[in-house]
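Quick entry, no commentary yet.
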Amino acid sequence: MQAFIDENTVRGIMVVAAVADPSALDEARRTLTALRLKGQERIHFKSERDTRRRAICSALVTLDIHVRVYHAAKLPPKIGRPRCLEALVGDLAELPLSRLVLEQDDSTVKSDRRILFEATGKHGLRDRLTYHHLRAKQEPMLWIPDAVAWCLAKGGEWPARVRPLIGRTMTVE
């Protein structure tokens, strides 16, 4: 299994992981890439029109992926993000997970590596779990947690559109 991770900071820190079996990745990437408009390097939900958002959500719920959400609404991002990543690693330890891909934010890479090194050691995953930072334009699977996090943070009609994808939500304190 592989997990693709992005975050949203609109209502406290929310870290979202889209988890997929490697056998589902090619189809998911083809579907996501086909959803891009001409000239788009990536799908970024905050930049899309509502009609496009609805179409993208409809396509996402057909993919063979599931999503886990880690929300630290009461914590500032500098505290909440590390705690969410620690919770994510512990939670995903129950799966045969081999790879984590985080959307690259240059300001958090060094901290993420430290947190993930400690968390993978704590949960006995250091020998089987690799983690990488990639830009969203490099990995279409990162577009899924971006979309889910945006929808959950936005509220209104949007959470219901991605709810079929969500397998678990965890409050992090």
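second:
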Amino acid sequence: MLLVALLLTTSPALAADLLGQVVGIQDGDTLTLLTPERRQVRVRLYGIDAPESRQPYGTRAQQELSALAFRKQVRVTVEDTDQYGRTVGRVWAGSLDVSAELVRRGAAWVYRQYNRDPMLPPLEAEARQAKRGLWALPASEQVQPWVWRRNGGRATATAQPSAAGRAGATASSSSTADLSCGSKRYCTQMSSCAEAQFYFRQCGLSRLAGDRDGVPCEQLCR
């Protein structure tokens, strides 16, 4: 009996899976699961980061998650617990991987800091190339949610002026309009994420996204 008890408490399948119905959608990457024991579990979808509610496409991202999961019976493969006590996991609605589908639809970014699934970045690159979802927005509105949060909801895709250049902030804000495809070829030559985005999108300089994830010069744009 002791052996059976140990197996039950250490079995990965039993420890890592949750079953239940989705009864709440908080935003584009967080939902509430109601288990058969009537326990509510807040679940943060693994590997992705959807636009925040006040960001461009934030409301639409929440609607996309709702269409995929709300009121459906799902299985959650638990990966971790985040700093807010939420369960982090892969959500499966039947055979559909909800995280992957949101990325494929352009409703979420791949959360590169935490993602370990090699299948997600190519889906993001595909959505970006096809201009699905948030990738149809103007480049200035395609702001990573983690950047948005880090800057208190004030982040933009246009580089902020330096201390030396604050006096010329008006001119700096329109700097992207003055860019043209020139002799720059490498990330080390770029002065900002906005410039890197311009060369990548407008000038076809694909080498700036060397890992082919659709994000140029990640040292500037992540």
